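Journal club prep, shared notes

We agreed each person brings one worked example of a sequence with its structure written out as tokens. Mine is MFS transporter. I'm keeping it raw so we can talk through how to read the token line rather than staring at a rendered picture. Sequence first:
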Amino acid sequence: MDTELSTTAGISPTAATHPGPAGHHDSHGAGHHARHAVSPALLIGILLVAANLRTPLTGVGALLPTIQHGSGLTEGWSGLLTTLPLLTFAVTSPLVARASHRFGTARLLVAALAALIAGTVVRSLPSLACLFIGTVILSAAIAFGNVVLPALIRRSVPPQRIHSISALYVTVMGLTAAVSSGISLPLAHVLPGSWRTSLAWGVVFTIVALAVWLPRVRNDRHEASAGATRSPIPWKSRVAWQVTFFMGLQSLGFYTAVAWLPSILARHGLSGTAAGWVLFYYQLIALIASSLLPFLTRGRADQRWIALGSSLIVASGFALLAATPSAYLVACTLLGLGGGTTLVLALTFQSQRARSAGDAAALAGMAQSIGYLIAATGPLLLGVLHHGGQGWTLPLSLLVVLSVIMAGAGYGAGRDRLAHH
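Then the structure, token by token:
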């Protein structure tokens, strides 16, 4: 049975050096760091990692019709290509907390960034097998960054600043993702190698991030050698499951929109380039929403009404797109406003609802393994429903229902409570 604890003014019990798991004090806790500002070098490192967490993936949706035409991929295989990253996230995420505990955050991030470079290069080689193999490699690398960042923020950032730092890295992640959606198809028209070369343009961010994190490896202290206790996954926590379902349904909506929105718009007469820029617009609105969210949540540890409301805005966007496709700009505005807000909340909850950095890694591993397994059904299921029904009304109606369910999970996850194992 859960014994969730209430926090006060957004500061968790660790602010008072609350004992961590197994009676150990959390030496990386908020109480230690509340006296110190976040260093610019660490902040830059966090933001550079964030710039790599979606850029390699969001351009695929805009390029999908071109990839299908150039490679002969069927809709089923195309659905698998867009679902593969989420399946890889689900399989890889539970391994991250153990690896971080054993090897240290900086070493883990350096290895992940190197793997991301390798995967990006392999994906762009002239082979269909490489397209899928490279996608798996780079997705596994991204999964490590997805889980490590909430734990890194929980360990290094004072509790009252967790929300603003999370929103900042989500803003960078959204900006690079939006740019990738907008420029991938135009780049495919001008670069040698067409869409294969266009898929690899984001490797520039990865190389810069690797250069920034390499020097930090020397002073990295992994928790196993420091005698720290690795936190167990909070399977019995009601709050943890609410965070997990909110994370999963939020990701399902986003990755489904990124994968299929250009195809939905193309069915209603937009060119591939125009559809790519609409996808850019959707992510730009999400970016604005995510950057403004800290002003709405400042000083509030309880975010249940914001989570509920933003989820229902996402539901209304999908409903409008299903009922009136010609109003796609209004629908994308609603999807962006709700989606940008729910994304920041989903990532923030993984830090905010944990007692320590170790607990945050365990909660993030759970939320992202189960959550991305839920999310993985989205692009694939929509592709199957569209192929069977010859239209987008049924798939979009399903997304409306799932967004309403997300509202219920968000209301629970947004409560001022901590998850316990």
